[in-house]
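Bench notes, afternoon.
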Amino acid sequence: MLEDGGNAVDAAIAAAAVLGLAEPQMTGLGGDCFVLLKPAGEQRIVALNGSGRAPKALNADALRAEGHAAMPIRDVRSVTIPGAVDAFCRLHADWGSMDLAEILSPAIRYAKDGIPVAPRVAFDWQVAARDAHLSGRAKDFYLCHGDHAYHQGHLFTAPGQADVLKRIAREGRAGFYEGPVAEDMVASLRAMGGTHTLEDFAATACDYTTPVAGTYKGTDLVEHPPNGQGATAILMNNIIAQFDLSDPWSAQRAHIEAEATKLAYDARNRFIADADHTTRLAHMLAPETATKLAALIDPKRAMTTPAAVTESVHKDTVYLTVVDRDQMAVSMIYSIYHSFGSGLASDKYGLLFQNRGAGFTLEQGHPNEAGGGKRPMHTIIPGMLMRNDKVIMPFGVMGGAYQPCGHSRFVTNMIDHGLDAQAALDAPRCFSDAGEMKIERGYSDAVRNQLSEMGHNVVVPEGPLGGGQAIRIDWDQGVLIGASDARKDGCAVGY
């Protein structure tokens, strides 16, 4: 797209549409996206919220009455309206330069003729098949002969999605949110017990918002505001800044990062919600909040119940990046949430539905309580770095809940330990969540043993923690430096 004269927005939309076919377990037209955009010739950053809302009829009381203490995960009631297509069309209208049909033509071709399954995608596909993540019609569209996973090198085709993409190319958002495609999605969801309506789909609209930012040792970390969890990464950095962590791969750094993760994620779980319901964002971003939380960390011992110890402080909740010849920069993350989303697909076109509604809570009165027309708390967050009032790097780190921790580690790897973007992505990762401390194989057994002695429940994850991409804009030299994480099948490409 860039070689044909398109700009960063054209290229990002084209790549995103192809990724829905290349990595269907991660993303697709049935998902959501968030975008940070630096316009050409400017240094301001624009945020676009492309996350969909729950159907108007979703009711938390009804779910609790059925005996649910938490949102069901692979269930029609966790399916929120897809927001990404509306965001792509808005981006194209406001910032794109090429014809939408030209932008979507590679994805249409791959959907019709097939796209080879890459190594990491094949790994995820086999896990999903083993763990029965797909059900109903989704098995017909996303499993070979309806019963087993695609393997590396197999051609995955999606002719139904080719038809959908052609409609979008001709009609814009109306080709997806109205007419036959919307009718297929709504009829399929209602047949599975959903409350979704054609009016829910027609009303879908993305929003331009103001990014949030925090400074870490002279570098500004810019994140998407709620309902995204970007503020969590800023709070983590603010906590970590209180400590001296000079040895990058030591048990001590991993321990402090794990404790900061627990504290920051507890704040996320308390406060982050639909933007109309997030009321304490300023408190979460305030330096004094981080100072008080940092004081709760024992340098030698893991905490077990962060929510209890933080009450006194809180008592008053798939990534790609493009930079073009004019330094327009796009940081985009696009996802269906869990592997293959809800595991449910539409009957005619085979559109896989996301399960973002699983990001709601059923705690009564909580800002993020499930409700009709609300956006759930989102894990996906695009990032950008600024220094001296200039954007120097759009970046993102994938991995569901890991993402704020991944953003923090990526930034501290570079700023505190002098790594370039590629080395900062390649470096070993750890993540403390849901009672476990996941330590990648890149760490030594000695570090794992030390962390166990500190009280962490150490496990080695089956797969890698997330992925990541970044593009450094070197304003002094006039060059772009790309980085792509080997944990995924992506790559850095320039010309």
